[in-house]
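Feature request, filed as a ticket because there's no other form

It would be nice if the structure record came with a short human-readable summary line next to the tokens. Right now we just get the raw output. Example of a typical job, pasted below so the devs can see what we mean:
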Amino acid sequence: FTLEHGTVGPNSNISWEGEELLASAAGFTARWKGSLSGGTGAGDTSIALAFHWSDITVDREGLHPISLDGPGLTATAAGPRLDLASDGGELTVTLDLPDSKIKDLTVLGRLLPPKAPLTIRPGSPALIRAHLVLQGPSAKGELSIDGGQVGVGVGDQTLRGGFYAEVKVKEGDLQSGDFDISGTSVGFRGAAFSGPGGPTKGDPWSGEALVSEGSLHTKVPGDLKVKVKLKMTDTRPVVALFAANYKPVGWFKGFLDIKDVAGGAGLAMEGTTTVIDGVDIQGNGLQMQGRMRLKGGRLDGAFYAQIHHLSAAVSIENGKRHWKLINARKWYDALH
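Raw output as currently delivered:
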């Protein structure tokens, strides 16, 4: 191993194996058993290094340790030279994580704001895999999560079934922790609903949210701002979120039976605040619109639904819902 003015020289080799190999990026640290090998070329300073972690634990301030059970994480670093006095910006680092098991996705729950209308339920095992390319502070790549029995809380309901998330990192800055996640998709396949009293009737539910515009800032809780396009087999999650006490309105059940609906919405999470706005769902004679703001435990918002000649609106003030069945459209518009 040779050094020339702080740069690793030609014909240098390194090999190491131990119990505690650490790597950090964007506030996350991977650690546990690992190995390192590589070196420079015979006649120049070009360098290639390979890192491997097994029995991985990922740490982030504010989160419980995340254990990954699988083949391990591999990182390769290559570049024209390695200057020990630099920040490694001259290297291109490629991270590959094959399918690895997370025992329960609730370890990620603290990334969501406290008392958020969407929560991760216990008993949600999943597989995670990732491919990321890092060049200095910039990052791009993708991360995937798949689980057969993942539970998500929506209002007072639980949606549980086949879950997937394909997180696209179009562009990211590891120093600031800001990432463009446009193109990300999240969804459920064949999921079942249950309420406080147990399973509810209805066909298996499927739906997908595709992020047309999106940014993520990695901290705890995380800052998220996205616009999504929605496709759903029916409206049950929307009704559970906005109209939790629809049951006294008997004919309102008809809104749940409208199949194959689509639309869009905006979602922003920052600190203790969650905002859902621009909700516009349509299909087969149905129209739904709404907005919601949760801050510091206070929930406010409004919701409107129409199917053919029937309509209803609800205002939400500090968690209390007030219904309007006559002149609902005019009443809802006035709430703006």
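Something like this underneath would help us a lot:
The chain is about 5% helix and 60% strand.
Residues 1-6 have pLDDT under 50 and may be disordered.
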